[in-house]
Write a sequence for this structure.
């Protein structure tokens, strides 16, 4: 005879290990994965701080995203300890997790004991719908989406790289996007700069980009700087941003940006493109190498490809820009392994991606020193741009 | 024999090749061999004093 519901629950509970909320409270910072198996609405109403959210109905398909290592001790909880008991048995018996426990009494008992409950700021109904595919990824979820909404990302350039980056970061819900560009939309831009369009030729790129961003996602605040970065304005413009995306088209600005961001300790997601080739790296000051560790000096002026019009495959900035946008989201959400200390080389013709390890240079003229020692006069020490390009002929 | 990946800005100096091979037991030797077979790279890889 089949067991009744209560009998089945008793059987299940006899097969799993239960843990009291007081013990969970002590284990919470000890490398234990605490997983809330309730529904999204229940989780949003308040959960154990730091708990990952994997609804029981999606347990089998999503637990690996939240707890990839089966040897990690896992504590599951729900409202009262019943759903988490069933889930614990599934993890233990069917999925091979080695040390699974279910919290006795669930979050109801946790609250009764007076332990801390974290209430995430609620997303609006429209936001839940707009970002629903993010919310379904355990690595992001509501907390990751909130981080994106709270984030401030500054884009240097609304051109080839900046176009896809701005569009996708806006779509992803990055709350504040800054754009620095002094240029206007030109017909020759439209082969790759997809944030602009034929009707906006002659319009400042910052205005054109803002229009596209607003049409895509009204959640995003756009901060425009229709100017060219130079040593007189860079510290003021870049201060206070969480991440900077380097899509600039010339070496002097790139070195200036490096020096200023090391001083202010702001991570930079950098890419460059030429022809069919692209490069990408993430420069996180004092955690990895900086641009000057990688390229101590600029190339000779006659070789610098930034002084005039250079050919580039139209889709290449799309490919590289979206790799940059991906790195930005990873940095904001604190997930994955950003390309810090790694230079990725993409060859579109060969369809190859090569990785080169890059180490910090102990004698780097910039990042081997304390940020407070980097003076204004040292920022972007580099030949004058006009002279640099004039020399290139 | 080492394989050298040539960045886009140096390709005009080596006849447009993306990959080249050169002999040498150290990075310096390999680069000197490269500069020897492709003299246009000499001034880009080495200072006038011969430093890399």
């Amino acid at each position: 005879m089949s067991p009744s519901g209560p009998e089945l629950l008793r059987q299940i509970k006899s097969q799993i290990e239960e843990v009291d909320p007081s013990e969970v409270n002590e284990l919470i910072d000890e490398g234990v994965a605490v997983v809330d198996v309730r529904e999204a609405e229940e989780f949003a109403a308040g959960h154990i701080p730091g708990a990952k959210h994997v609804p029981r109905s999606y347990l089998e398909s999503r637990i690996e995203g939240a707890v990839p290592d089966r040897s990690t001790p896992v504590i599951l909880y729900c409202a009262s300890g019943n759903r988490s008991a069933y889930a614990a048995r599934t993890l233990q018996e069917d999925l091979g997790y080695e040390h699974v426990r279910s919290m006795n009494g669930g979050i109801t008992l946790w609250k009764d004991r007076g332990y801390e409950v974290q209430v995430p700021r609620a997303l609006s109904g429209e936001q839940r719908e707009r970002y629903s595919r993010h919310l379904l990824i355990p690595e992001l979820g509501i907390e990751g989406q909130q981080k994106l909404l709270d984030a401030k990302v500054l884009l240097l350039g609304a051109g080839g790289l900046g176009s896809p980056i701005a569009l996708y970061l806006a779509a992803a819900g990055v709350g504040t996007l800054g754009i620095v560009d002094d240029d206007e939309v030109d017909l020759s831009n439209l082969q790759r700069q997809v944030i602009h369009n034929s009707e906006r030729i002659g319009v400042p790129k910052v205005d054109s980009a803002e229009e596209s961003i607003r049409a895509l996602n009204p959640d995003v605040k756009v901060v425009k700087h229709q100017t060219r970065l130079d040593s007189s304005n860079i510290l003021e413009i870049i201060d206070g941003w969480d991440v900077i995306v380097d899509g600039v088209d010339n070496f002097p600005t790139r070195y200036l940006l490096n020096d200023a961001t090391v001083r202010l300790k702001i991570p930079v997601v950098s890419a460059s493109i030429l022809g069919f080739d692209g490069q990408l790296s993430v420069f996180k000051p004092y955690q990895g190498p900086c641009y000057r560790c990688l390229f101590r000096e600029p190339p000779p002026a006659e070789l610098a490809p930034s002084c005039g019009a250079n050919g580039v495959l139209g889709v290449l900035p799309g490919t590289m820009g979206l790799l940059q946008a991906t790195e930005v989201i990873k940095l904001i959400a604190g997930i994955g392994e950003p390309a810090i200390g790694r230079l990725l080389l993409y060859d579109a013709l060969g369809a190859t991606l090569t990785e080169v390890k890059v180490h910090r240079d102990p004698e780097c003229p910039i990042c081997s020193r304390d940020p407070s020692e980097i003076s204004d006069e040292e920022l972007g020490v580099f030949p004058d741009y006009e002279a640099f390009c004039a020399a290139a002929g | 024999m080492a394989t050298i990946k040539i960045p886009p800005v140096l390709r005009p100096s080596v006849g447009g090749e993306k990959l080249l091979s050169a002999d040498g037991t150290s990075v310096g030797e390999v680069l000197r061999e490269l500069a020897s077979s492709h003299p246009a790279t000499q001034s880009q890889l080495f200072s006038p004093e011969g430093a890399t």
Summary: Chain A touches chain B at residues 274-275, 277, 299-300, 303-305, 345, 347, 350, 354 (CB under 8 Å). The CA atoms of residues 80 and 106 of chain A lie 4 Å apart.
